[in-house]
Specification:
This protein folds into two domains: 188 residues, no CATH class; 262 residues, Alkaline Phosphatase, subunit A (3-Layer(aba) Sandwich), CATH 3.40.720. 54% of the residues lie in helices and 10% in strands. The chain has 21 helices and ten strands. It has 544 residues and is α/β, with parallel strands linked by helices. The strands form two sheets. It has an eight-stranded mixed β-sheet with strand order 6-5-7-3-8-9-4-10. The chain starts with a helix and ends with a helix.
Length: 544
């Protein structure tokens, strides 16, 4: 009898615990019907090969279902969405590298080995419990109790499947996650075919942007800078004074700014999907769409600006490994972490502080030729420690050694992340640093011949924003030439550094940015038709 109770308890905890993490309600999830079915079934079956094979299959299912429910809880916490096995398995490598960046190689390897050890221990424990040397005889009390439990649980589980819940705190976590993931796989596969067909059927052609010819256009993403940083009082008290100061400093330098919002395709992470959405003009909200877009002949803003005559540049200080995506985009120049001459310390996950990245870009990468540059800043990336000050003397930055004192400043991530409120404070301070240093850089780099587009890549994780936060991110567009800002004002952007926060729910999607650039700075339809007629007539005249 004790084996039956122990087996039921162990299975039940395995299957229910991920739901506690995911939903944060222990009382609502107390019983997994599958635990009350599998345990007595395996103890009642006669010993033999059939029971052994069934036991291995059920243990595998329990472990896969538990892993999928844990993964769903983790992806909800990180990205505000459920796990999709079709899309998310390739992200395991990225998660490992993020762990290495936050806690170091040794601790990351130890964590992985500990997880493997725990998994093996669970497997051994389940196999021993579910496959005892002798089966329960029905004529004795343990066997009769097991049979009664099996019948009752099976009936209740069947009713649950048909929508009749007899016990409020009981669920079918194995069945539910299996059905959900299967539906995800089939739906995503169908959506993949549709997306592929859409790429072929409705391409976005590369288009010169004569309205920006000869200009520097700097598309600058600030990590985790979402609208919650401005409309949640926990963070707004830090960020709003910075935006007000930025407005004042820009005014003093006769620089103009308009602000609005765009909806990001993702939450919490996978910044490259937001970059791809803005560059391509397509809504890229998952890794598969990203790969399909890059593997196709799809054009992007890089092609538009190349056709306009700008040199195209990508500044990616977070890229520490090979980045074939950069070649797929077709940038003329790519500055990843290894290409940037930084001699200062890494700051946990952050390879170099944003102020260094911006200063290095201005001193070494912009040059005299008009450029379209995509910059992906990273100082406001989790774990949000240490917090750096903005150095007033930019000439002191040089090769970055000046940042050495902050290598060990503040608490390390493993200490900071034990206190949720401290995490939130550090989030606000790190985003404030990124916004402030970008504003200071704008004072140095923006002139009448420059269009600086500063935008968040995505909202932070639900731990920071809450579960139901908008997906909108602030956008600030700065130039010394007010004519360059007029098209954005016509699209609802407002003067100043503070966007209309009450319109976050109606923010246009981020993929609209490329369409706006083409419509507002590209050739008009009449000009395109005239060029087409001119090309046709030339062909006729020169034909033999």
């Amino acid at each position: 009898m004790s084996r039956l109770l122990l087996t039921v308890l162990m299975l039940n905890c395995l299957l229910i615990a991920p739901l506690w993490w995911r939903f944060g309600e222990i009382s609502a999830y107390l019983i997994a019907w599958e635990a009350l079915i599998v345990a007595p079934l395996m103890l009642l079956l006669p010993v033999g090969r059939a029971r052994r094979l069934l036991g291995i299959g059920l243990v595998s299912w329990v472990l896969l279902a538990t892993a999928a429910n844990l993964g769903s809880a983790a992806t909800h916490m990180a990205f505000a969405r459920p796990l999709n096995l079709y899309l998310d398995v390739p992200l395991l490598r990225s998660i490992y590298h993020l762990l290495v960046g936050n806690v170091g190689q040794l601790l990351a390897v130890c964590a992985v080995l500990a997880a493997i050890g725990l998994l093996l221990g669970i497997i051994v424990g389940l196999v021993k419990l579910l496959l005892p040397p002798l089966a329960y005889p029905l004529k004795r009390l343990p066997g009769a109790a097991a049979l009664m439990l099996l019948v009752v649980a099976t009936c209740c589980a069947a009713l649950e499947l048909y929508g009749v819940r007899l016990v409020d705190g009981a669920r079918l976590p194995m069945v539910n996650i299996t059905r959900f993931q299967w539906q995800q796989v089939t739906d995503t596969h169908a959506a993949r075919l549709d997306f592929t067909a859409e790429l072929e059927a409705s391409p976005i052609e590369a288009q010169p942007l004569p309205g920006l010819e000869g200009r520097n256009v700097l598309l600058t993403f600030i990590e985790s800078y979402g609208v919650s940083a401005l409309d949640d009082t926990r963070y707004a008290d830090v960020l709003l004074p910075t935006l007000m100061e930025l407005q004042q400093r820009l005014d003093e330098r006769d620089l103009h700014v308009v602000s609005g919002m765009l909806e990001s395709p993702i939450r919490g992470g996978q910044s490259w999907l937001a970059h791809a959405t803005a560059l391509s003009g397509r809504w890229i909200d998952n890794q598969l769409w990203y790969r399909l877009m890059l593997d196709s002949e799809h054009t992007t803003l890089i092609d538009d600006f190349s056709a306009t005559g700008q040199r195209t540049l990508s500044v990616m200080p977070a890229i520490t490994m090979a980045w074939p995506e950069g070649d797929a985009y077709g940038f003329d120049d790519i500055a990843s972490a290894s290409d940037i001459d930084y001699a200062g310390p890494a700051l946990n996950w952050v390879t170099m502080p944003d102020q260094f990245t911006l200063d290095y870009t201005q001193r070494h990468l912009l040059g005299e030729t008009p450029v379209f540059a995509q910059l992906a800043l990273i100082s406001s990336h989790a774990p949000w420690t240490p917090i750096l000050p903005v150095l007033d003397d930019w000439s002191s930055i040089e090769d970055g050694r000046i940042f050495a004192p902050w290598e060990t400043a503040g608490d390390p991530p493993e200490v900071l992340w034990q206190d949720i409120e401290r995490i939130r404070d550090h989030y606000a301070w790190s985003v404030d640093y990124a916004v402030k240093v970008t504003g200071r850089w704008a004072e140095r780099v923006v002139d009448d011949n420059t269009l600086l587009i500063v935008l968040g890549d995505h909202q932070a994780a639900p731990l920071i924003t809450g579960d139901n936060a908008s997906g909108a991110v602030p956008v600030h567009i700065i130039s010394g030439d007010p004519a360059l800002l007029a098209p954005f004002e016509a699209r609802g952007f407002i003067p100043g550094t503070l966007p209309a926060l009450d319109q976050a729910a109606e923010a246009p999607r981020m993929n609209q940015l490329r369409h706006w650039m083409q419509a507002d700075f590209g050739e008009s339809e009449s000009e395109i038709e005239e060029e087409s007629r001119s090309a046709t007539s030339t062909t006729i005249r020169t034909a033999p």
